[in-house]
Fold each of these.
Amino acid sequence: MSKKIRIGIIGVGGMGSGHAMGIHSGTGNTIWSTQIDYVPPFPGEMTSNLPDFLELAGVYDINPARNEWAVNHGISVFENYDAMLTDPTVDAILIATPNHLHKDMAISAMRAGKHVLCEKPVMMSSAELLEVMAVSKETGKVFYPRQNREWDEDFLMVKKIYDEKLLGNLFNIKCRIMGSRGIPGDWRGVKEFGGGMMLDWGVHIIDRIVKMVPEKITNLFCHFTYITNPECDDGFQLHLTFESGLTVNLEVGTCHFVNEPLWCVYGDQGSAMIEGWGKDCKMARLVSWDDKDATPIMAGAGLTKTMAPRSGGKSVEEFTLPRFDFDRNTLYRNFVETINGEAEQIVTQEHALRVLRIMEACFESSESGKAIAFEA
Ligand SMILES: NC(=O)c1ccc[n+]([C@@H]2O[C@H](COP(=O)([O-])OP(=O)(O)OC[C@H]3O[C@@H](n4cnc5c(N)ncnc54)[C@H](O)[C@@H]3O)[C@@H](O)[C@H]2O)c1
């Protein structure tokens, strides 16, 4: 790569300190700053050599304790955000502050001549993002949304099933992210700071589904939950219908004391399931529709032959999808390559805009209680 980029990080709380540690150590391991033990990589996970193309210039946080944390880890601390922006050795800024601060920080960084890598949700609304996109165009500075979860291994496995039609034509995909701790932290539970689970997790799971399925959404219905927080959505159930008829159910919950599987994928030639992060993808592929041994089973107080399990082996083949290699530093590398004009931006501003518009349609649907005919 032609030019190494020096980056400053604004906000070194949970995520910012993960970035700081990852870039400072050269591994890209964005581990939480409180986690001091080594976190083993997932199977197949590689880390390209970050110092070849990205270097940490320093950090700044409004909370002195966080700056002290940085100093204790051998990381330079700027006097304030302005000092980071006026340092001529800084090429780019990584924004990892609460969501309501992203817009002004991104605009002032680009106006100061810096490229921007901005944590998700990049903005609070599509209107905010349009403003930022205009400044990116005017200044010629890269504005890169850090929507990183298209590189999650579980998603890569589902994408492989979709792209290679491993289960034939898919008719339904379910992805559920579930926990039982309510909305975590402080600002995440406050609307004006960009709190709520749609902005927090919705952005990730909508992002990658609409990138994987290259079709318009014809219908959208969303229901938000406010079980643990009356002000901010602590979860949602979203139903999307795509042009081809494929339906997708996306669910986030923070009041779930038993979890449903992370992914269920259904095609006309079989089904797949991934129970949780780091788990295998279990495949059941149809060999033959004939299953002459089917005998009725007891189903509650009655009998059913329709829902009797297949006799296995003969009519369905069961296997585990092989794990494959992936590089956790792909997004950092693409950010730098985009700045150097060596690659196309993988997570584009237009894509982030589409995701924000879908999220806004979710709010509209939940408030009205109605489905929305979308992306006509
Ligand atoms: N991409 C991901 O997987 C991922 C994961 C977690 C968080 N995030 C995103 O990262 C951002 C930060 O989230 P977090 O979990 O680290 O929150 P956090 O509360 O742990 O950290 C935010 C930090 O910003 C600091 N801060 C607040 N105002 C500031 C200001 N004016 N100037 C400088 N520092 C300021 C706070 O003191 C705090 O240390 C959010 O946008 C969040 O959505 C992304």
Note: The chain has nine helices and 18 strands.
Amino acid sequence: MSSPRLKLEDLVVAYGQSTIIRGINLEVPENELVCLMGRNGVGKTTTLKTIVGLLRPESGLITMDGRQLDRLPTSERARSGIAYVPQGRDIFPGLTVWENLQTSIIVKGKAARAQVDRVFELFPALKGMLKRKGGVLSGGEQQQLAIGRALLLDPKLLILDEPTEGIQPSIIDQIEDTLLALKAEKRMSILLVEQYVEFALAVSDRFCIMERGSIVKAGEISQLDEKTVADHLTV
Ligand SMILES: Nc1ncnc2c1ncn2[C@@H]1O[C@H](COP(=O)(O)OP(=O)(O)OP(=O)(O)O)[C@@H](O)[C@H]1O
Ligand SMILES: [Mg+2]
């Protein structure tokens, strides 16, 4: 068997004295979409930040395609094929849409330029607003820009932190279509953090549920039943 695209083993992460992630194990197989779920404050974003290198684990192992990641700087992880769309977007508000996209082209060069048409196919609305400043876009448009910018990197692993949070329904539908289209292409793995259960059900292959820094349940998305949702997800 080939190694999974991403593997977390016994990962422990703390902020100062308080341990937030308490020894989690998680795998994202090649070309699959895994949804990390859980209520507010359980440690989902902390997990993602540790994968991309913004936080250093206390202990545990992070590997991508069998290669150990946890000593590499964030930039090196990006170069090895990880693209990250943080919670709350994080586009450059003072740069135009086109300039925001350029930031990926600068990192990735020609290879990113080759992805531009594909990104406009997935998010046609972006094409009509290239000269507008990122900061004047709606939340949904900013989310499309943030995902589009990540896709220009043509990542092996796309990481999305609550892409539907505070976004109008029509754009949530477009993001859902985009994730389904990316899955159909079978060229990247996706780790999605999401609390919107219907959205997770529509796009995921597998789920993991976190509670206070531990993974309490995981399986194929078809196994995510109403009781599990009521017990661990809804407020
Ligand atoms: N910079 C920080 N310093 C100290 N504690 C933090 C810091 N960031 C987050 N925490 C704490 O770590 C815990 C996990 O936070 P995290 O942001 O990972 O949760 P989350 O599952 O992403 O929540 P949400 O669904 O609200 O985004 C919370 O108790 C939070 O208060
Ligand atoms: Mg979060």
Note: The first strand starts at residue 6 and ends at 15.
